[in-house]
Write a structure and sequence with these properties.
The complex is a heterodimer of chains A (277) and B (320).
Chain A lengths: L5 H28 L4 H4 L14 H8 L5 H32 L5 H12 L7 H11 L6 H4 L6 H12 L3 H9 L4 H12 L1 H17 L2 H8 L7 H12 L3 H21 L1 H9 L5
Helix pairs in contact in A: 1-14, 3-14, 4-8, 4-11, 4-13, 5-8, 8-11, 11-15, 13-14
Chain B lengths: L12 H4 L11 H36 L2 E3 L5 E4 L3 H5 L3 H29 L9 H9 L6 H12 L5 H8 L11 H29 L3 H9 L4 H12 L1 H16 L3 H6 L11 H9 L7 H24 L9
Antiparallel strand pairs in B: 1-2
Helix pairs in contact in B: 2-14, 4-8, 4-11, 6-8, 8-11, 13-14
The chains are: A mainly alpha (277), B mainly alpha (320).
Chain lengths: 277, 320
């Protein structure tokens, strides 16, 4: 846009720097605090640059006996990756059917998918918890992901993307004898890769950052803590050492910080594609 | 040989003249096959959502009319008793606090990132770094953000209290004073949503056509005037998107409340979703009937808000 004069330039930087100091101090505290000896943090204001760096907090958070983060990390990874893969598979197939396969049920099925987006998860969390409990899989990691394997939002997004695919190209492929599955896998999916990556990123983040459901599941079984519930449990049990908490939080932030720093365009595209033109 | 006439593409000639519309219509079995395949492809998605979203909705209605034994198993019908329990001043307060929380999160949660993204559209060095930096809170899950802010506000550590001390202000008990607890939870949520909204609004602003701005400038619209009457309408889809997603985030917020204040002090930060959690799962309360009834209230509130936002607000959105 326009190149501003010197005074607006100074004001712009002043405003942005002040905002950055205020908004990013918690981030600085998280990342730096985890490497400090705990007494450096028990100080007002925290001595972030006192000089002693240590990995002791990470070791403590990773292995401490009450809520070890190592298994929680594996659970989070399992939840994030499997929800991502499941969303991709179920959404691709459904969106393909909704766009390319004619059937009398196509419209109603589409509206059904769309309607599920309107249901806040918290409205149905009670029946789902009772259902999972009745299945008797409380000790199984599957209980962390079962309710989240399909996504109306994912179907909707991919339908938007598939509709952009030129009808003539598809006809040509069909005339050449290309079957549906082959067309989907070898032509359509590569052509709609940006949308797929967007869905993948969004689904992974949703799984990785999920809190309410793992809180319910892990309340009856500590070994099913994800990083998110483990951080809360750590805060509840540990109480004392902010440094260990901050180290633990930094571990939960690893993939998400990387995504925000290096994958911004996928984040925005994944969330807004179709919603914002 | 009496083979049917074939066209160049090898399709029976009669079919070519069928009405257009996607794929060529062939014989009945092929169409039935296509429909069957369509059903097969939607089946995994439908099964997942059917078992874990659609069916539970009906179950929630059923549960909301049931009492339960000490383990939480549904027992005999209690009619509409749970809904009667919702007609109390206490639940009115919960609804009111949910509304207050949502409004107080949405307005600054969209305006703050807008006030950061707008000056960042200027061609100045370092703007990309600022954008990435301001997006960082988006990386925080609700529990990570809540615990970090508990440390930020912990009297023994608090850099916030330290700054207040520098200017001679007393530090409040952020999470335990009735007047402050809600403000604290709101503030943390605004911080959390600001990262994502910044990315959304910056992307919207990046899409504003330079030529339109140039034309406006020639017509004498510059600075704030240009921003309000040209840029804002042009990015209204992004603003609308930010408002809708932030509203949903706020309405469904649980972790901030549960971790930072646990609904307290004295119920001052009790919101609808916290109340569902509390009745159903907290301290083995296991009041699943009441929690289900409140879940249905949440559903209705969510649908109403969506209807209002899409019916009223979206009319003012300017799509190109």
């Amino acid at each position: 846009m326009n190149r501003p004069g010197p005074v607006p330039t100074v004001l712009t930087y002043l405003w942005l720097v002040i905002a950055a100091v205020v908004l990013l101090f918690p981030v600085l505290l998280t990342v730096v605090g985890g490497f400090l000896p705990s007494n450096a943090l028990l100080h007002q204001p925290p001595q972030l640059f006192a000089g002693h760096w240590t990995l002791e907090n990470y070791r403590a958070a990773w292995r401490q006996p009450v809520v070890p983060l190592a298994p929680a990390f594996m659970n989070s990874l399992f939840v994030g990756v499997s929800i991502m893969l499941a969303h991709l598979v179920t959404s691709c197939l459904a969106a393909y059917a909704l766009v390319f396969l004619r059937s009398p049920l196509r419209r109603p099925v589409f509206w059904l998918f769309l309607a599920t987006i309107m249901v806040p998860y918290e409205s149905i969390v009670v029946p789902n918890a009772l259902f999972i409990r009745s299945l008797g899989i409380n000790d199984n990691r599957l209980s962390l992901i079962l309710p989240f394997l399909a996504s109306g939002f994912g179907v909707f997004m991919l339908r938007q993307a598939f509709r952009q695919f030129p009808a003539e190209l598809r006809e040509a492929a069909v005339i050449d004898g290309c079957g549906h599955l082959r067309f989907l896998l070898t032509i359509l999916l590569p052509a709609t890769r940006p949308a797929l990556i967007g869905i993948a990123v969004w689904s992974f983040l949703q799984g990785w950052n999920m809190y309410f459901w793992p809180l319910i599941i892990s309340s009856s079984n500590n070994s099913l803590n994800t990083l998110q519930t483990a951080v809360f449990a750590l805060k509840d049990n540990e109480g004392g050492s902010p440094a260990v908490l901050l180290a633990g939080i930094t571990i939960t932030l690893l993939p998400t910080l990387l995504l925000v720093v290096f994958g911004q365009r996928w984040l925005v595209r994944g969330f807004t594609a179709g919603a914002v033109k | 040989m009496t083979a049917p006439t074939l066209t160049a593409t090898g399709v029976p000639a009669g079919d070519v003249h069928r009405p257009p519309g996607g794929i060529r219509r062939t014989a009945r079995p092929a169409r039935a096959r296509e429909a069957a395949l369509g059903l097969l492809f939607t089946l995994p998605g439908l099964a997942g959502l059917g078992v874990f979203v659609i069916f539970p909705l009906f179950q929630a209605v059923y549960l909301s009319t049931r009492g339960n034994d000490i383990l939480g198993n549904p027992t005999r019908s209690v009619g509409l008793r749970h809904f009667h329990e919702l007609l109390t001043p206490a639940f009115g307060t919960v609804l009111w606090q949910t509304l207050v929380f949502t409004v107080l999160v949405v307005v600054p949660g969209v305006l703050l990132p807008l006030s950061l993204a707008a000056p960042m559209t200027q061609r100045l060095p370092g703007m990309r770094i600022f954008r990435t930096a301001f997006a960082l809170p988006f990386a925080y899950s609700v529990s990570a953000a809540s615990v970090v802010w508990l440390i930020m506000l912990n009297p023994g550590v608090s850099p916030v209290n330290w700054v207040l001390g520098l200017v001679g202000l007393p530090a409040p008990n952020w999470t335990t004073e009735p007047g402050w607890a809600m403000a604290t939870v709101v503030g943390v949520t605004v911080w959390m949503v600001s990262g994502f909204n910044l990315l959304v609004l910056a992307a919207g602003l990046a899409g504003v056509d330079e030529e339109v701005l140039e034309a406006a400038r020639i017509d004498g619209a510059t600075g704030p005037r240009q921003f309000v009457s040209i840029v804002l309408p042009l990015i209204s889809p992004s603003i609308f998107f930010a408002v809708v997603t932030t509203t949903l985030t706020a309405l469904q917020a649980l972790g901030q409340v549960q971790i930072m204040t646990d609904g307290g002090p004295n119920g001052h930060t009790r919101t609808l979703v916290y109340s569902i959690f509390d009745n159903a799962f907290h301290n083995n309360n296991s009041n699943f009937g009441l929690a289900s009834a409140q879940g249905l209230v949440l559903l209705v509130v969510g649908v109403l808000i969506a209807v209002v936002q899409f019916g009223v607000l979206e009319r003012r959105v300017h799509y190109r």
